[in-house]
Structures are given as structure tokens and as C-alpha cells.
């Protein structure tokens, strides 16, 4: 069992960068750095936590899962190889691009690229948000959460909970949707796996959640989205399971950014796994 401490970073292939740069910087408040084919987004002291690459189609390029030391990374590599999984060591160029000390990668369910790493680079310069916000909730909780469609949700859940230290948070079943929520630290979920419902295809990247430190950060972004006529997937609402108050921005590449405040934290010593029959307590209606 490999102890994963957080989702440290994520990479996404996107078909559009200009509007994304605006949304991440001016609406969400990330610090964005752009070159021709790549957008880095910084949300805390680290060099970056998100990278977006110009591509022909949208997909999750990789998830960066953190382990606690270089020794732990070596042990993880040995363990995965012993289990017969194919593991590749990062090249020097990949380590530099991700801004980590070392990294290995493997293919997870639905060919999702999982990167295990240690040693995320911390920037000398302070984080400079793209607009005035209280800040992002990251630190030991990691970047946020990722939601994926799985061809076999139960097999994918076994993969993440048997090879890695992901633990069950809860389930939501509604309409045609089945969702399993997994945590690896107190953040309610770092990874959620859904059946390929609502027109999603297996392996499809549905959304990335960014959590901010104040409800006002969310409210001001919500105002901006209305003023700027930025499309939404779901309106403001509150989730049943993680109790996050959030809304979902629709990016032009097709994935969503959930922008939220106030998610509950899991204490593994005293956690009840529940089954919910709806994702929302209120709001979160599908936007036209
Ligand atoms: Fe979410």
C-alpha cells in the first residue's frame, strides 16, 4: 500500500487557452503564466499546481500524487513493480517541467496517467493572485479534487484503494449517475469516480475543484461570471456529501472548474460512510 498524501498537481490537455487564462486568473484568482502552448496556474507557494497544454482534444494529461519522501517514492516503485505494474521513471525534462525533485508514472484505470512524486518546488516569490481573494485552501489538503468517468467504477475504486491509500468517503446515486468519493487526507474527496453517465465517455475528465478560503471569494466570482457571461455547468449550490458551497464554470475545452468554499474534512477515526440520493442540498441546477 502506497501512502499518498495529496493530489499535488494536475495537468490537462485543452483545446483552448485564451478564455481559460482569463477564467483562471481574473475569475478564480490563480496566478497564471502563459507561453504559446502551455498555461501554468499557481495557487499557493508552489511553482504551480496546474498545467494546461494546447492539444487537439481535452483530456486529463496526468494527476500528480504526492508521497512523503524520496525513500517512499523508491519503495513505491519497487512495490508497483512487484505487483506487475509497469512503472516508468521521469526524464530530467519531465521533472523540470513538473517542478519536482523526482517522479515516476504509471497507467491507471482507463489509461489515466498517474504520476507519483516527491519534492514540489517552492517559489521564492510570494503567490500573487490574479484578483483580490482571501486565498486557496491547499497545503496538506492538496490542489483540490478531480472527478473522472470510469468504464468500471468498482474496479477503478479497487485500484486506487488497494494500491494507494485512498479511502472511501461516501457514495451518491442519482438519476443515471453513480459516484464514489475517495479521500487521501482530510479533504472530503481528492478523487471521485463516476459511471459514464450524462454522455460522458470512460476516462473522461469531468471537473477540477478549487477551494477558496471565503464564501465571499465564491460570491464575487459568481457575480463576475454573470457580468462577463461566462458559461456555467451548474449554478451556485451546496453539495450533500462534502457540504461544499460552489458553482461550476464550463470551460471552452469541455471540462468544468468547480469553485467552492467550506467543504467538510474527514477524520478517519470517526467517519461514517454514507449513501446519498442527490448531489445537492439546494441550487446546483443545470445552467442553460
Ligand atoms: Fe466536485
From TrEMBL:
<dbReference type="InterPro" id="IPR004360">
    <property type="entry name" value="Glyas_Fos-R_dOase_dom"/>
</dbReference>
<dbReference type="InterPro" id="IPR029068">
    <property type="entry name" value="Glyas_Bleomycin-R_OHBP_Dase"/>
</dbReference>
<dbReference type="Pfam" id="PF00903">
    <property type="entry name" value="Glyoxalase"/>
</dbReference>
<feature type="domain" description="VOC">
    <location>
        <begin position="6"/>
        <end position="119"/>
    </location>
</feature>
<protein>
    <submittedName>
        <fullName>Biphenyl 2,3-dioxygenase</fullName>
    </submittedName>
</protein>
<dbReference type="InterPro" id="IPR037523">
    <property type="entry name" value="VOC_core"/>
</dbReference>
<feature type="domain" description="VOC">
    <location>
        <begin position="142"/>
        <end position="262"/>
    </location>
</feature>
